Amino acid sequence: MISAFLDTAEAASGLLRSPVLAERWEQPSALAQFRVSGLAGHLARAVFNVERWLAEVPQAGGTPIDAVAYFLSGTGPAPHLEDAVPRRIREVGEQEAAGGPAALAKEFDAARARLAAQLPTTPLDRPVGVFAHVLPLDQCLLTRLVELVVHLDDLAVSLEEPTPSVPAEATDAVTACLTRIAVTRHGFLPVMRALARRERATDPIAAF
Questions:
Q1: Does some domain include residue 183?
Q2: Domain interval for residue 146
Q3: Terminal CA-to-CA distance of the chain, rounded, Å?
Q4: Which pLDDT score, from 0 to 100, does residue 77 have?
Q5: Contact at 8 Å (CB) between 135 and 66?
Q6: Between the chain's N and C termini, which has fewer beta carbons within 10 Å?
Q7: Following DSSP, what letter does each residue of 95-142 receive, concatenated?
Q8: Ranges assigned E (strand) in the chain
Q9: Is the residue at 160 inside a domain?
């Protein structure tokens, strides 16, 4: 999981250093009400937050949850884009990007390098506070890996550039996580049919 996370972050670094990013910095992104700058900042937080969370004292008490349970904890009606949480997500993305594209890429690469030195010596079962939850480090990294892969595609589409390839370990982990979320939300049979029997598939199946 560590190598998948770090290697995917490296792929994201290449996109954050794209000249097209600087050209389109203040333009709308592929995500509604997200500027390209805010989306880039949101993507970068997948790495920034891991470093921030590891700097905190592990939370005591409670049973750590896995990545699937973490994502399902927010299951419910899709929030309106002007609700507090979506609005705050956009605001924080813009805050991360406030220094401009070059500064964001530099900070991203510096955090990635520090994590490359820190993560291999950190136990994968170390509890990590992830917002209001506690996850073992490997599951924390999986949540951020999902964020990296999904938003890497969002940003590439926003820039009209090819979505960078990510390691096979990352694609396997993200596919398994998203599939488990979709099965929990929709049931096994609809997911199986969507993947294997398109003639019997009904509604679109999505993890989020």
A1: no
A2: 2-164
A3: 22
A4: 45
A5: yes
A6: C
A7: HHTTT-HHHHHHHHHHHHHHHHHHGGGS-TT-EEEETTEEEEHHHHHH
A8: 127-130, 133-136
A9: yes
User: Considering the domain boundaries, does residue 125 fall inside one?
Assistant: yes
What pLDDT sits at residue 194? 86
Residue 82 has a pLDDT of 56
Domain count, the chain: 1
Q: From the first residue on, what is the mean pLDDT of each consecutive set of 10 residues in the chain (208 residues)?
A: 95 95 93 91 96 85 87 64 69 89 96 97 92 92 96 95 94 95 90 85 77
Beta bridge partners of 129: 134
pLDDT of residue 85: 63
Residue 68 falls inside a structural domain = yes
CATH number at residue 147: 1.20.120.450
Instruction: Kindly compute the dihedral angle of the four CA atoms of residues 68, 33, 170, 20, in this order, to the nearest 10 degrees.
Output: -170
pLDDT for residue 74: 66
- DSSP three-state, residue 205: coil
